[in-house]
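For reproducibility, we list the full input for the glutamine complex.
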Amino acid sequence: MTQYSTDLHDLTVAQLATQLRSRKVSAVEVAQHFLARAKDSSLGAFLDLSEEVTLAKARAADARLAAGSAGVLEGVPIAHKDIFVTRDFVSTAGSKMLAGYRSPFDASVVSRLAAAGAVTLGKLNCDEFAMGSANENSAYGPVKNPWDTARTPGGSSGGSAAAVAARLTPAATGTDTGGSIRQPASFCGVTGIKPTYGRASRYGMVAFASSLDQAGPLARTAQDCALLLSSMCGPDPDRDSTSLDVPAEDFSLQLGDAIDGLRIGVPAEFFGEGLADDVRAAVDAALKQYMALGAKLVPISLPRTELSIPVYYIIAPAEASSNLSRFDGVKFGHRAANYTDLTDMYLQTRAEGFGDEVKRRIMIGTYVLSHGYYDAYYLQAQKIRRMIADDFQAAFKVCDVIAGPVAPTVAWKLGGHGNDPLADYLADIFTLPASLAGLPGMSLPVGFGADQMPVGLQLIGNHLTEARLLNVAHRFQQATDWHNAKPVV
Ligand code: GLN
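The corresponding predicted structure, in tokenized form, follows.
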């Protein structure tokens, strides 16, 4: 049963699925292999593991493989960002507020992947309620970047990116509200995609900013992301009213198509002051590679790029302040032990349960939504949000996809931004615009910058063009080897 050609953890999802289907290896063997790696790791990527639960799921997968009723991902281990609620594992969303919380149901994305045969390996660390860019806002400690354990893996899906990069899991789910799949993928040298807003159901994703939150996969290759995303997406009208009424799609269908004549828009605003030289060099080299593959570079402008920071940091906290009002010590999660009356119970519970960044955002959000400030901040931000979306539509008249850096620098040192939340916010500048416009965006590894830290290229497509976007990344990965580089951990 064990004639796999290479270490199991070096196989891609596609390769693993093939080995499992041809029964060269069993789902239980695969699960045991990854469980052992996850347990041994000191990166802090996993928040919950259960050998018993995972092996039971693997045995069920083996039974389906034996019976010939296997799904496309049958037996492939997948770990979930702790923002997704799961019945069989604790779901904390990186917060003390939900310490030890067990959900009575699985998130739609989790149950869809399970229906395709994926075996849940465990839950992955993330910033508290997905608020952050460095995983340092997790109540359960930061995750370490496997390329340099003194550095951040990025955030908020830092556990997902680190676990995939360190081969603790073949793939992981993440969520992206303002960059939380793309930026950690870039910082850890893996591939990740955030689909069009509404593609994947938000049911069972602990809500941060509902008009922005989207689920997506992180894996080593675009091909694997296509495979996973195909199982994750599709309408969910009864449970998420913002899920798009477009049928589930096979995002692998365009993989391998030629990209001759593809028009790649290069936004001037993504290459200005503030972009570190090492990131610029790796991104420029990737663009040259695309030209060698037959693509044409088209200079474009996204003139309101800078405004995406104030706009996002008004809209996201506004929605968060409303979403997080449910954590009041009554329905679920933490409740303070000592209080005098009901109001005091709310106050003590929330003071104890939430971390500093979450409190900061609840205060900002409440402020910008309050009478007298709503027009000046929230409404204004919504108007500019629309203009940012319009700028993309103007750009897509002259190009097919947009390419640029994911972040201005490579992963910084843990603690490197000190106590300065603005430094984190500013580093989101290149991922926020696509989020505000609801567009699909991805990151693929395209080289290394200073201190041998990975650099990702961001690709942004128009609404519902994920299949093309994934092929554009796939063509690059067929011609280069960056996605195969692995950290020594
Ligand atoms: N870094 C951004 C924030 O802190 C984005 C987070 C995300 O996409 N979840 O809000």
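Residues 130-133, 156, 176-180, 208, 316, 428 surround glutamine (CB under 6 Å). Residues 1-5 have pLDDT under 50 and may be disordered. Both points were considered when choosing residues for closer inspection.
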